[in-house]
Amino acid sequence: MKFLSFLFLIFCSLFSYSQNVGIGTNTPDSSAALEIKSSSQGFLPPRLTTTQRNAITNPAIGLQIYNTTSDCLEIFAKERWQSIYCATAAPTPTNTDTTIITDIDGNAYSTVKICNQTWTAKNLNVSHYRNGDIIPQVTDPAIWPTITTGAWCWYDNDSTNYGANYGKLYNWYAVNDPRGLAPEGWHVPSDGEWTILTNCLGGSSVAGGKMKETGTNFWASPNTGATNSSGFSALPAGLRHYPGSFEAVGTKVYFWSSANYIYRGLDYDLNSVTYRNDGNYNYGFSVRCIKDPIPGSLTNGLVAYYPFNGNAYDVSGYGNNGNVYGASLTTDRFENNANAYSFDGINDLISIAHSNAQLIFGANQNSTISLWVKKSNNSDVDVISKGWHTDAGCTVGNQYLGLGYANPPNAYNFMLYDGDLSHLNNWRTNSNPNDTLWHNLIIIRAAQPKFYLDGIESTNIISNLGYNLDHNYFLTNSPLTIGARNNHDNNCNVYYNYYFAGKIDDIRFYNRALTQEEITYLATH
């Protein structure tokens, strides 16, 4: 206290003799009341937390502090604290992508690369689908809750104050429209792609701060944890509630995913990605776009591919065609006719001869299976199977992909089984979707097998007993079966049981393990 009093007296003395005060200089600039000069030290303003800053009574206009909560140099002006500069963390997961893309209306978007994903760095602002069709603007709050087709609006129906910074708000019908909302080569991110982003940024509990624009020019104070170290630059665009009212501009932002009207959200007073919920079709949320992965690599190592476009032919070039027994052509996930197969759960199946099946579902430990499935309510059985024997006596064995085969019901399972329960391995999806929607399933058969639902890896391993996947003795004449379990008795006679009920489409077999980028692409297309 005595030292501070001493300094105060020195400053008073200096001001009493001069209109300019210099520290480290005898000739302060005539325009400066105080000039500090040093070649080895800096100026250090008061360092306060947000709570301490807010406790300042009647802060003067121009008062400056360094906010240790937000890591921002702040000034009090226009009746609120405003950020002059905010520090950002080292952008380890981020590489700036200088690409500028435009939508069909000519709106330009800067982009940012975060880990292995490339995102638009601002919200979508388009009013036409990719094919040029108009997306209707709906302002009437009485009409907004009733529409069942794509629509957009400005926040509070005010383009002047909200359009340029926040973009448009869209209902889920616009997001899900097959004409495409995103620019060519881009798409609305899937739920799995949002999860990949948040995991890359340290998990949902801290990713929100790394995704939010810093300071309080847009976000309300305290804008907790905001560093924008990812470059995602999220702004608080608010939302249109499904009854038609607007709320939360300045405090929240919500982003659609392409998956069953699931959305993510960020909040002004939280560091986390605060929401992963099922919304209402008539919410008005913001949209960010993510770049399509380059699919060219998806032909590498492809040993069989069944798109089921009117038949069960293998279009990989290897000619491993399937024989259809009872299964009928039906609509696929894009509502295209005769582009998927439907199975009745009783006796329908597609069979691929053993001579071909041994190549595409054989002993290679580094292989991948990808397919799309839409099960019926009563479906609780296997989708793909291939029998083998481990000795001359045809010891009963199967390797197969199952749907809800074990408790809890309605889980998606990848099970490895050789007829002995002590050699059972069961990878089950972390979530148990009790639905009849299309889902992408990907299995990587490797020394450490992996199982993905809609691009998200399952960590739910029911038992992992180190089962050896190197099966060299496949059951003679045992085909690869789609839609039923392929089994056999001790005399090596093949029979079928546990039939699948539902739709199956786009089955791919690779003789290598796919990358995460390739898995994400298959799960979103």
Brief overview:
This protein folds into 3 domains: 33-87, no CATH class; 94-291, no CATH class; 298-523, Jelly Rolls. It is built from 8 helices and 36 strands.
Outline the structure in words.
This protein folds into 3 domains: 55 residues, no CATH class; 198 residues, no CATH class; 226 residues, Jelly Rolls, CATH 2.60.120.200. It has 525 residues and is of the alpha+beta class. The N and C termini lie far apart (69 Å). Strands 19, 21, 22, 24, 29, 30, 31 and 36 form an 8-stranded antiparallel β-sheet that branches. It is elongated and about 105 Å long. It is built from 8 helices and 36 strands. Helices cover 13% and strands 31% of the residues. Strand 26 and strand 27 form a beta hairpin. The N terminus is likely disordered. The longest helix is centred in the first third of the chain and has 16 residues.
- CATH second-level architecture of the largest domain: Sandwich
- In percent terms, what proportion of residues is strand? 25-35%
Counted up, domains total 3
Kindly provide the radius of gyration, computed on alpha-carbon positions and rounded to a whole number of angstroms.
Answer: 30 Å
- Discrete helix count: 8
> At the first level of CATH, what is the class of the largest domain?
Mainly Beta
First-residue to last-residue Cα separation? 69 Å
- Count all strands and give the number: 36
Spans where pLDDT lies below 50 across 5 or more residues: 1-11, 13-17, 88-95, 396-400, 404-409, 417-424, 463-475
Structural class: alpha+beta
Principal-axes shape call = elongated
How many strands, which pairing sense, and closed or not: the largest β-sheet?
8 strands, antiparallel
CATH topology of the largest domain: Jelly Rolls
Helical fraction: 10-25%
Summed over residues and divided by their number, the pLDDT gives a mean of: 78
